[in-house]
Design brief:
Among the domains are: 53-141, Nucleic acid-binding proteins (OB fold (Dihydrolipoamide Acetyltransferase, E2P), Beta Barrel), CATH 2.40.50; 219-247 and 651-693, no CATH class; 257-287 and 302-425, Rossmann fold, CATH 3.40.50; 457-615, P-loop containing nucleotide triphosphate hydrolases (Rossmann fold, 3-Layer(aba) Sandwich), CATH 3.40.50. Helices cover 40% and strands 18% of the residues. Bound molecules: adenosine-5'-diphosphate and magnesium ion.
Length: 701
């Protein structure tokens, strides 16, 4: 039997078919339940009546009680014409101002009647007034003392035009609650509700719309956030359990000559963090479970090394590997970088990108099929159907957030059995977000940089200081260092961005004249050959300066570069700035990152820039980014999106609730992995419902 909660919203009295359409279009509200799950985003305290003398400029909405002494219409120009009502209580007076419905209000307001006035005080001509307040007669039924908090619902222009004022929405929700209350049954097993001292689902829904007081509001919010995050984690963790059971892991138990010889010949010691991660990967490879691991490590922490050593473990056990990168530049660098490491090790590698010639392509295809190629490097050319392996055992994806879910999942099906999977990212994802986005992955972290790196000094400079920046660059170049100059590239304003880059490039070659100074330029509109040529010029040290768009963000390794200049730095997000900054400071030399901005900056931009100057810690920045911009805008999540729509939880703020919810879900699944137990019927049922409502992101990795 269908529950009343699923009734079409058009059947709610006061809605009807036409307005139902608007509710659906603007808010996605289709049924009664959707409307009950549409929560206020803030609350106004209507439990207190203020007196006029108490008003100060910091106040938001308040409630006053008093009388009107005079009413006048002032101003004759249409837009300045307004009705001013002098309002007074026993402590002072204040103007109530109306620009609309003047005639109606003038007739309606009566001197010497007591009113409750509700609005936001503002300052005009050095005294307080209230523009368009709500005014209602104070009666015995309406003493202006509602004794509770009033919810303010999110709204849009269209909703308002269709008559959905906050008052109207509140009224609709109120009558809906009356209708549906009996149907609001508990959604979490009672023992959890008791153990966690949660409000019941019904109480929580009631109080989220009509909080009796602040404390109940807080409890209602906690309960609903917990519920939401609990089911999310339950779903992710259950999925993980099932996958681990279903997909057999290729067992790679041998540590052989390939790995050992390379390890012995490394030009440096692995950091403890790298060693730890390799151990974690190794224990996955021998465990009989398919590895599905996310490796997070700050820029320059040496993730590539870990990938290559893992590929050697696969080779030792007779399996092929592939390592996929988002750009040709990066794939080429991985390939060339490992050629040196793998010299004399006895593994065969190849590089496959969009610009690989047809003949080469064919020979690679053969080498993959007959098993003679052990490690294949490349771009998304790797996932094309024509690329088939003889026995793929490990797939590594670098900078995984650059690839779409679908692209990534195509790699999974390249072998006879599902290969082990390692995805790597230098965009540190805060723990709470990782737990949601990648809830069914295991996570490793390289939290240590190779020794000998000096912290990068970050400075802020404005356009007016450009001359000083130029002399600083010259100083550095004369010391034998190289300089990056990066321009933003944003889809919406690509044209402008390219123009800025071109102008900037012209200025640089004017100021830094050849042949004394050589400047390379790299951007997305170049032919591949030109890009490769200029990149090589800079990488080999022949060019002193590289002017580029943010394409170089991903992973380019030029240890001799010690200065990173970021133009229009205010247009980059924190994580992106941090990525770019990580391009320098790779050698042992002292290095600098200079953030160029215009003189005028918004408060938020200034905060971001200051934060960049104050810390080198990628995780700290990522947490701050999440707080400042919210998870929707987090880099690394735009493409995949959040796996679910969160109604009420905020990942930036509700980390603790999330962890608690996850622990609770974990404990349940440990006891009953498939939720088969009779006492988990409710969970099974709700999870099923959740699944039907949401997209399947189980292949998010
Ligand atoms: P990322 O994690 O950003 O991908 P890379 O793997 O590109 O970092 O490594 C950055 C640089 O550090 C490379 O030049 C690499 O050879 C070097 N490197 C990696 N591991 C170590 C180590 N343990 N000691 C010294 N240098 C290292
Ligand atoms: Mg890298």
């Amino acid at each position: 039997m269908a529950s009343i909660l699923e009734s079409d919203i058009k059947f709610l009295q006061g809605v009807g078919p036409r307005r139902a359409e608007i509710l659906d279009k603007e808010l996605g509200i289709k049924c009664f339940k959707d409307m009950l799950m549409f929560f206020p985003f803030r609350y106004i305290d209507r439990s207190k009546i203020y007196s006029v003398t108490e008003i100060d400029s910091s106040m938001s909405y308040i409630q006053l009680r008093g009388r009107i002494s005079s009413i006048s219409v002032v101003g004759d120009k249409p837009r300045a014409k307004r009705l001013v009502a002098k309002f007074w209580d026993s402590t002072g007076t204040l103007d109530l101002v109306f620009f609309q419905r003047i005639k109606w209000i003038k007739d309606w307001l009566k001197p010497n009647t007591e009113y409750i006035v509700f609005g936001k005080p503002s300052v005009f001509n050095n005294s307080f007034n209230m523009v368009h307040p709500e005014v209602e007669p104070a009666t015995i039924e309406n003493p202006g003392y509602m004794g509770n908090m009033m919810g303010i619902y999110p709204s849009t222009e269209k909703l308002k035009n269709a008559g959905f004022s906050n008052k109207q929405i509140t009224r609709l929700v109120g009558s809906l609650l009356k209708l549906c209350e009996p149907a609001l049954s508990e959604t979490i097993p009672v023992d959890i509700v008791q153990k966690k001292r949660l409000l019941s689902h019904r109480e929580a829904i009631n109080n989220i719309h009509f909080p009796k007081n602040n404390q109940l509001l807080a409890q209602a919010q906690f309960r609903l956030k917990f519920e939401e995050l609990f089911y999310l984690q339950l779903s992710l963790l259950k999925q993980k359990g099932i996958r681990e059971k279903k997909i057999p892991g290729i067992i790679m138990s041998k540590v052989g000559d390939h790995f050992n010889n390379c390890y012995r010949k490394l030009p440096f010691q692995l950091t403890d963090a790298q060693k730890r991660v390799i151990k974690e990967i190794r224990s996955d490879l021998v465990g009989g479970r398919q590895m599905n691991r996310l490796l997070q490590g700050d820029v320059g922490s040496g993730k590539t090394m870990v990938a290559v050593l893992s590929a050697l473990l696969a080779a030792d056990n007779g399996y092929q590997s592939c390592i996929m990168a988002p750009t040709e530049v990066l794939a080429g660098q991985h390939y060339k970088g490992s050629l040196k490491l793998l010299l004399g090790i006895g593994v065969k590698t190849a590089l496959l990108t969009g610009s690989t010639k047809k003949k080469e392509r064919e020979s690679i295809a053969n080498g993959l099929l007959d098993g003679s190629i052990d490690i294949l490097f490349g771009t998304h050319a790797l996932i094309e159907d024509t690329v088939q392996f003889s026995n793929l055992g490990l797939a590594v994806i670098d900078e995984q957030h650059r690839f779409g879910v679908e692209q990534r999942s195509r790699l999974w099906n390249k072998g006879k059995t599902m290969p082990h999977i390692l995805v790597m990212t230098a965009t540190p994802i805060p723990r709470t977000l990782a737990m949601t986005l990648y809830g069914d992955l295991d996570v490793s972290v390289i939290d240590q940089l190779p020794p000998g790196r000096k912290p990068i000094k970050t400075m802020h400079a404005t356009d007016t200081q450009r001359d000083r920046i130029y002399s600083f660059m010259k100083e550095q170049i004369n010391k034998g260092r190289q300089v990056f100059i990066v321009y933003p590239l944003i889809k919406e304003s690509e044209k402008m961005d390219y123009k800025n880059l071109q102008d900037g490039y012209m200025n640089i070659i004017e100021e830094f004249k050849a042949p004394e100074y050589i400047t390379a330029v790299v951007h997305g509109k170049q032919k591949n050959e030109d890009k490769a040529h200029d990149m090589e010029l800079f990488a080999s040290g022949k060019a002193h300066i590289l002017v580029a768009t943010s394409v170089i963000e991903v992973g380019v390794d030029v240890p001799n570069a010690s200065v990173m200049i970021i133009e229009s730095a205010e247009r980059f997000g924190l994580s992106q700035l941090h990525q770019l900054r990580g391009r320098v400071g790779r050698g042992a030399e002292e290095s600098w990152c200079i953030l160029m901005t215009g003189y005028k900056l918004s408060k938020e931009s200034r905060q971001r820039i200051e934060l960049m100057c104050s810390t080198n810690d990628g995780f700290e920045l990522a947490e701050a980014d999440l707080r400042m911009r919210g998870p929707g805008d987090m880099e690394g999540t735009q493409q995949s999106g959040l796996p679910v729509d969160l109604h009420i939880s905020n990942l930036a703020k509700d980390g603790q609730i999330l962890e608690e919810a996850r622990r609770t879900a974990q404990a349940i699944l440990e006891e009953d992995p498939l939720l088969e137990n009779e006492k988990h019927r409710l969970l099974r049922y709700n999870l099923g419902k959740l699944k039907r409502e949401q997209k399947d992101y189980s292949l998010i990795s």
